[in-house]
TrEMBL record, chains A, B, C, D:
Keywords: Iron, Oxidoreductase. The lineage of its organism: Bacteria, Pseudomonadati, Bacteroidota, Cytophagia, Cytophagales. This is Ergothioneine biosynthesis protein EgtB. Residues 184-318, 334-421 form the Sulfatase-modifying factor enzyme-like domain. The keyword Oxidoreductase applies.
Length: 424, 424, 424, 424
């Protein structure tokens, strides 16, 4: 993670409190019962997210930097460590839902305890010490923002697993437009492109190892693939014709009897989808969402196109700088239809994470940090695919054109979508 | 289920309200978060128990007998049916924990709604109609009592799965005695014994098909096997010597690496056990508890004895009528040491369900009732073993000497214990 | 296992050689490739059966009794021990099919080696020593006969798993009759019956613990249930109506999508079944075969009857002594239709093992022998159901009215069938 | 797959017969019993390999091109199709070992039948038709060579699973040298490199989509990592220190309790390994073999180095053209120690396939052929890692510097090894 120039303490405090508060705002509409379950192993209980992000600050900042600090509860390190082997043993991931205690209200007290001491620490710490602490402090905030996005996707899964399909929040009053935007393929010239984060702000270690790649000419779609386009694939027998699919993808389709994106249900002969605002009719102009890499790739094959690589995606943003996207601040919490009036390449930022045909591997000069921070990214660099651009659940100040998200190719519960490249 | 003479309506109402209230009392000490989880498939979420027992009254009594009745929620039948194929499709057992909605408070409202309408029904129904309704009404109460016992065992498992091992309630103030009672083997003469329920009160259909069995002379232990005796088995390598074990039992021991009863943990070199009152040191005079049939049988083999059959157990109660036992009303919620002063055969009732070496099969004249009630017992008559006598979690007015409880031989989360018979 | 009066050495030798030869005769029609596979865990490779039965004689007789004996191969004990913990570690059951070496021809050489030394031993051993050795010698022969039956059922499964459905042997020239025999229910009077082996010949330890049981009057079907009767059950939706089934049985039906007995396939709209003589049209008069206990019980429920208990079955043979049955010597290797001319109760012996509604549990006075022989039967006395009467794959001199066979209730690859009792 | 200039028919025939004969030579030392088993799902029965490669010629050449051709057996297409959905249904991969028929000798007859008809076809076909047929004919030969390598690795696994650890063949008489070659890191200058097959001979479709990549300067090890170097990693606790491992790799290590490469066993305190010549002491100078990608990567991390990417590997061969390698023709069937006298970069060809840190993905311009040949490579382009350079089990005329082999990162039964790049 890159170095940062030291902002004033007051600014740090404000950002800290704002981001921490945001986590609680996300969980406010939930029942305590919603915060403890784990319907699939990928989903963590919201209560766990809230405690885990606090444990991060407690363990990596309060304990080493605030001498008087007393840990809130001796067993919370065991309960709320996620995957840091360096930081001791822990509840195994698939058992997170068996932990009913501490209850939500005690987790909230834990958050407040950590917040108060973080505020005290930042106010009391000499400025030169603040500078030393800054990288891990910044990582803690970025980490909390990542969990905010996971909270939203996990809440969606938890509510969507309930047969009653309860809404999380109503659609925001100010309604979005939905209109058709014709697909176009926009030129990106070949040549050498510089890949990776070169700025002076924060970035993750997996964006470093800045290096050049040589690309051939290619074309990128001007927007995300829509529900209407995807429905045409479905209606053309897309889920039953093996020729479009990677072999492991088709095996998954058969085993799980997939016929449509996650959250799609047919009612009275019409496709609906569960959204965080309840069940809605599928809007043909909106981007297709909650599909696996396998489905994205099969759709691309069916349409005679292909997915971009992560390098092509990053190069495209150098040619077509991303516009303001539909991020979590819009409170839509679902992707929106593209804008027919807009020019250039839309939706590179926000709406949906875009599957690329690039494995999540280290950049040439990548190296892991020593200590627990070294476990943040590097050890996951196998069997996962890179996604780019952020989604409607991502905080807008959390994204970069160099940001590399990653999931296994079978995962569907994230806000994932498709952008095509024209085959040459 | 046998016929009943009609008690006065007022009496019925009182029993109904008392038993229904008792379920809520059991759940009162829980956090909402405790009521939604299912750490193993055998355990149901307490919230589910509370709703399921209400669904039973709603579906089998209110809907058919109260014409004006409107069901509380159209999806609750799907959510809270347990295993009645006759009553439609349902949430699969192992998915009960993914249902966070309705939350606890709505389930409590559901209970109140059902209670109010049950009260109205009983008050308004003509007396001859009450008689017609009586068998299913009585079954509903017995059913709720069975779930009360399951609630206690499931709550114990849920709390015991939390690494913080929270207590459910403190030990009741009035303390129990613990002293050693020497083991004795008491004669039961051979001959023909009549098996099954012959009274005029309520019984389950699996107690009917009254029939005679011929038994040889045998001897029964005068009390339950103690923790001290079981510890001797453990210390003698009981869990590692295949010769004591049924083959499938030893396979389970190796696969799950069993070394002690469920809930036993070693701390600072001493055995403790998780109880509903928190972690306690193992008391050597108390009955050993939470063991599988396999462990009970292995212990019996190790000690040169054997388990009783269910017929021997029932015959023993004809020779040594059970004394007042340690049932749920004592609020101990754990088995107590036998009484050194008592004569005859102790602990036949209460403390712990006693594993017998009898498969849970139909009695000779057994027949299933038509309709959903026919699914109550008969379809489970395979691969399970009979347990007798009730436990510290059983309501005292719920037990009979002819009562047949049944679990698979590997189950350990119930209040199960061991009584030996002398080998001939 | 009971004591035996000593037969002359020459007689012993002849029986030994005859039984041993029979095993090789059974395997003669196989390809070497057939002898190494294990399509399901229940089935053992024929090569393994041949070696295992030899290992039994080598380990329990030659090693202790023939001082000069040198074991054939130091690793065979590891390779060919079945389940005797007392006799050291072994290849796990489910890995038997990964053992390609020794090849068949070396196993045959092993058999010959053991046979030669057994012959030498019996000829050289002083008569008083022969008497000492007799029980384990007899057990070895009975054991080999049990494996001969398993060989036939396992060969059937192995060949039937090949998509080419190769025949094992042609139907014997002399053809069987097939005609309808009307079902009758024959009276067996209630009262006390003596159960268990009381003779002076060989029996297994699980037949001992002779004891009395008291039975009510009942009626037994005069023959086995036919394919025609079972087909009526199938055509009446037997496999889809949960009301006939034990809960675990119906779960198996749904999971495995069962629709007919094992080996039944529909071709051109007609039911055929794979037999050891190849694919044949289902004969409606022949007994239905290769059904699980669950199917037997569901059929009984559907027909308003029930299965016998093992005690009722044994009592029935005291009232209706079994006639000469269709055993392995007939070389039919499939069950035959009952005889319309015959009186009384037919097919008690031979044709098919009959599922009883009795768990395989110890008789009252049962005790395990010390040493490895104690592992023969006792440790399997859980979760299995008793079958009685032998089958078309059983040697005729291997059966007794007190013989208790046992399998888990879901097993279908044995020659299993149904006899009904009339419900009272 | 690329076009070929037409060789004379006689030459084609000779190559065909030679390659086909080679498959039978590989299987000659086996027992029939060895040819039918499948100890893990990755391994196919040798009998299946022999039939499958014949089915390929029968289905894709004889049936379409030889009008008079009669298929050998109507069910062989079902039995011996591997994964071609376009060519109908088939035995599922994990059930290949349940197919005992046809036995080996009938498979050999099938091979001969196909060979005779292929010879007739080539002799009779007009020259212009031969040209049309050439691509699929060439693919059939290459396909058979790939299965020859799989045969050797599968035979090794099958024999190595036998507790008796039988040798396949003795070590060839002419003994290999073993001496230490110091590790050196050799410069490869950065810049643009052309990747993919540009020749006029045969190549697979996955080598096409020739394109340029831009590489930074790097250094490659001059030989493969040795057993001695790997042993140092093991002795330094390599298998227990999570810091060296990818998370999924460390999970595999813990679950399978890995402590050493596949086939390593400790005897009398010394490491031995099972080879195709039987159990041998580990030679510290020989390359470490049979390790997964996870182990290769962990070793690289431990040594402060990294693996090459597939592009770096191919670039290295442009700088250091590979020397004659230890291929299958040496009959060593195991990797050999590097040559201390040799200069430059050794072992790029032969000895062991080298894991690269590159996912097996399509090259930029990759496109699948229409029809069944399109299923050859493309549908596997997910979750697998590229290996380069061929092994001691590869035919020497089957390898190219552009050849891309691929396996899942957990696989260990192939001849896989490690080459390091110096970290920058």
């Amino acid at each position: 993670m890159s170095l940062l120039t030291a902002p004033a303490t007051q600014e740090l405090l404000e950002r800290f409190n704002q981001i921490r508060q945001r986590t609680e705002t996300i969980c406010a509409p939930l029942e305590p019962e919603d915060t403890v379950v784990q319907p699939i192993v990928d989903v963590s209980p919201p209560k766990w997210h809230m405690a885990h992000t606090s444990w991060f600050f407690e363990t990596l900042i309060l304990q080493p930097y605030l001498p008087s600090y007393k840990i809130f509860h001796p067993q919370f390190a065991y309960l709320f460590n996620s995957y840091y082997n360096s930081l001791g043993s822990r509840v195994l991931r698939h058992q997170r839902s068996t932990i009913t205690r501490p209850p939500l209200r005690e987790v909230l007290a834990y958050r407040q305890h950590v917040n108060e001491h973080m505020n005290r620490l930042l106010q009391e710490l000499p400025e030169e010490k603040v500078a030393e602490l800054l990288p891990i402090f910044e990582l803690g905030l970025q980490h909390e923002q990542q969990h905010q996005e996971l909270l939203i996707t996990d809440i969606k899964y938890i509510l969507g697993t309930n047969p009653t399909l309860p809404a999380y929040l109503p659609r925001p009053a100010q309604q979005r437009q939905s209109a058709a935007t014709p697909a176009q393929f926009m030129e990106v010239p070949g040549g050498k492109y510089k890949i990776g984060y070169q700025g002076s702000g924060f970035c993750f270690d997996n964006e470093l190892g800045v290096h050049e790649v040589y690309l051939e000419d290619f074309e990128t779609m001007n927007r995300l693939v829509t529900n209407g386009e995807y429905l045409a694939f479905m209606q053309d027998g897309g889920y039953t014709d093996f020729r479009h699919w990677l072999d492991e993808g088709f095996a998954m389709v058969k085993e799980q009897q997939l016929q449509a994106p996650l959250y799609w249900v047919q009612q009275d002969g019409e496709w609906h989808r569960f959204t965080l605002h309840g069940l809605e009719k599928v809007d043909l102009n909106e981007p297709v969402c909650h599909i696996s890499f396998y489905e994205a790739d099969a759709f691309a094959n069916w349409s005679g196109k292909r997915l971009l690589t992560e390098f092509e995606w990053e190069a495209a943003t150098q040619v077509y700088p991303p516009q303001k996207g539909n991020f979590v601040e819009s409170e839509q919490l679902e992707p929106l239809a593209a804008n027919p009036q807009a020019e250039g390449v839309q939706q590179l930022f926000g709406d949906l994470w875009e599957w690329t045909y690039s494995a999540y591997h280290p950049y040439p000069g990548f190296s892991k940090a020593p200590g627990p921070v070294g476990e943040y990214n590097g050890k996951f660099m196998i069997n996962q695919m890179v996604l780019r651009g952020g989604s409607c659940a991502t905080p807008s100040n959390h994204i970069r054109t160099t940001y590399r998200n990653f999931f296994h190719p079978d995962k569907r519960w994230q806000y994932t979508g498709i952008r095509l490249a024209a085959k040459k």
